[in-house]
Specification:
This protein is of the alpha/beta class and about 290 residues long. The protein contains 10 helices and 12 strands. Helix 4 packs parallel to helix 6. The longest helix is centred in the first third of the chain and has 25 residues. It starts with 7 loop residues before the first helix and ends with a helix. The structure holds adenosine-5'-diphosphate and magnesium ion (MG).
Amino acid sequence: MTDPVSDPVHDQHKVGHLLDAALLHEQVAAESAGATELVLEASEVHKRYGRTEVLRGVSFGVKRGDVKAILGPSGSGKSTLLRCLALLEPVDAGEVRLDGRRIGVKGASGGMVTPLPERLLAKQRSDIGMVFQRFNLFPHLTALGNVMLGLVEVRGRKKAEAHEIAEQMLIRVGLGERKQFYPSELSGGQQQRVAIARALVMNPKVMLFDEPTSALDPELVGEVLAVMEELAREGMTMVVVTHEMEFARRAANGVLMMDAGVVLEEGTPDEIFTRPQNERTKRFVEALA
Ligand code: ADP
Ligand code: MG
């Protein structure tokens, strides 16, 4: 590459600024039209596995800086919903929008749509951070290696640069001292914090967490929730499937109750936990307490 201006990192910054400008413009236009600024939006999302309809028309919106907690019994479709939002599964019907733009498919809204080719899917996916119940770290890479990987492979950052960013992020989640440790040498709580750092370095527009503490020994839950609460305070847009009611009360501004592939009820933490309207929500919340 002879032209210094077409350096990919440099270009990415330029494009970033242009995108910011375009988004800001859109945002101003949307706000003046009285619309709210949705970062992530699911509209009538349907998903089936064979004959089982797992998601039966799920709709909800997440505004910038929102922290939404999702509750619901086992098998109600929470993980499937997050996997659809993160573009790890195609939806059968309905739409997922990120910053107002439909993702996961190509084609006009309302018209014929086809799945995106894998390369473009991967690019869209990289704007959505996902943290799984079981960490899913690469066992042959150190904490640092795990956190750097996406920056190098997906974002095209130079190794030295990725190293620096990853190191800073590991310090932020309290693992500066453990950067050279392999997953097998880390506790579950530490592995989960590495997984959070790995998602965060990509600078995602939204972070999705699927029961991030439910595979942890009780004494390790707090350190992971503390990192998530800090993120929430810093204004990160988050969707968290969790049954940690105290966390939801402290950090979330919205709670959704799912059951059998639909959103049964949505409200503030106080509305859902203290005076739920739906009978099933009431029973579920009582059992949690
Ligand atoms: P939750 O996270 O709320 O426990 P899931 O989204 O994991 O619920 O699962 C919802 C339903 O979908 C369950 O009945 C489950 O067995 C089914 N399911 C999930 N993933 C698959 C899959 N890959 N293939 C077939 N069935 C699946
Ligand atoms: Mg699940």
